[in-house]
Amino acid sequence: MSVRGTVFVADDDAAIRTVLNQALSRAGHDVRVTSNAATLWRWVAAGEGDLVVTDVVMPDENAFDMLPRIRKARPDLPVIVMSAQNTFMTAIRASEAGAYEYLPKPFDLTELLAIVNRALSEPRRPKIEARGEDQMEAMPLIGRSATMQDIYRMLARMMQTDLTVMVSGESGTGKELVARALHEYGRRRGGPFVAINMAAIPRDLIESELFGHEKGAFTGAHNRSIGRFEQAEGGTLFLDEIGDMPMEAQTRLLRVLQQGEYTTVGGRTPIRTDVRIVAATNKDLRTLIDQGLFREDLFYRLNVVPMRLPPLRERSEDIPDLVRHFFKLVANEGLQAKHISAAGIELMKAYAWPGNVRELENLVRRLAALYPQDEITEEIIRTELQASDRPAAAVSAGPAADGLPLGQAVENHLQGYFRSFGEALPPAGLYQRVLDEVERPLILAAMTATRGNQIKAAELLGLNRNTLRKKVRELGISVYKAPR
């Protein structure tokens, strides 16, 4: 049901004022438009109006400077902020300054009307206090693409809560940066941020790492040790690569999330915990659930607010901004400032970036360190990208048809394979069938590359020569030796 009210529209662009005036009027609202902040403030200070829609940059005052005054004078007046400066910090500044919602330009008119209706229907949310400009500029979330705008707006909303967030995305997309942003601009910023990578810890030590252990709890436990939950008390605990967590540790984590307390390894006294959980994964957890490798109940506990980070190839329009940002970083570290030619940038935008933003940053650092010229040419970019592809080809299916690393391509293939059986499961013996399908083409490729020289092929594969001979016989590979 639509709620009608008096809406103030402030924008320096006459075309936008006209469009909003017509659309809001058709929706039944009483609309007043202005091109300057002074008039808007006069209307607000007089106690008039039910909602404000304003651009950030006005000819006489920035909306971020005016928002605290509006908030103080009219704390219940919702303000929707629009901006063409489509950065993460614009969304955060809008949220922290007291805006009800942030919309990047160009905006979707239907979405704006829905936000207006919601703002007039709901009580205004409390906002956290704003921080200084220098602190705001420190967050390295870069990009103005539509997908990144959606992420910025979701992050701005999540700053006001302690909800558990599940961040998914390929390696190198910036999952830890998102977790740090949620912490450093959220309600727990005064507490510690503690990260733990499940894939980097031996399975038998994960519970001790998470919950700590008592002296004598196991061989080598000579002293009491606190775990990551205790270290993160009052702050944020970032559980990276959660899909690699062993099942027994998943069970203990679920109990902590359900009961809000845990015991150390070897301990008996329950310890209350107060942390915000942000989890991240580059795996499909639903597939792991189907395979019996991840607890479904834990998934739903962690997946309260799902957030997917797009791979760089899905937001290639952000590459110029990212390149400038990384060159600025290396210049601050003492390397010479550089720029990339327009043709070079276009070449980079067409590249698949299997390593995502992390790969792009490494390339920029290499360009800054190895090339003395101020402008990096298209030829240099082509050479570097081709060099990047060569090692990738040893561990990926070429840059396969879609440019994915081999592991990701196999995982995608297997997900489709499992889906093809619907609710049923594939025939038993899948593990060995998959290994057999990979092993034969791998050995065949090595034998082809070495022209049938089994000594060289064995060295290339890292196998014993007799083992290779046995594999060749078992797999029925025909060996053709190159003529002398």
Automatic annotation (TrEMBL):
Family annotation (PANTHER family): DNA-BINDING TRANSCRIPTIONAL REGULATOR NTRC, TRANSCRIPTIONAL REGULATORY PROTEIN
NCBIfam families found in the cross-reference section: ntrC
Sigma-54 factor interaction domain span: 141-369
Gene3D superfamilies per record: 1.10.8.60, 3.40.50.2300, Homeodomain-like, P-loop containing nucleotide triphosphate hydrolases
Domain Response regulatory residue range list: 6-120
Organism whose genome encodes this protein: Aquamicrobium soli
Keyword line: Activator, ATP-binding, Cytoplasm, DNA-binding, Nitrogen fixation, Nucleotide-binding, Phosphoprotein, Repressor, Transcription, Transcription regulation, Two-component regulatory system
Compartmental location: Cytoplasm
Keyword Phosphoprotein: yes
Chief location of this protein within or outside the cell: cytoplasm
The keyword Metal-binding is assigned to this record: no
Purpose: Member of the two-component regulatory system NtrB/NtrC, which controls expression of the nitrogen-regulated (ntr) genes in response to nitrogen limitation. Phosphorylated NtrC binds directly to DNA and stimulates the formation of open promoter-sigma54-RNA polymerase complexes.
Protein name according to UniProt: DNA-binding transcriptional regulator NtrC
Matching InterPro entries: AAA+_ATPase (IPR003593), AAA_lid_NorR (IPR058031), CheY-like_superfamily (IPR011006), Homeodomain-like_sf (IPR009057), HTH_Fis (IPR002197), P-loop_NTPase (IPR027417), Sig_transdc_resp-reg_receiver (IPR001789), Sigma_54_int (IPR002078)
Superkingdom of source: Bacteria
Protein's gene: ntrC
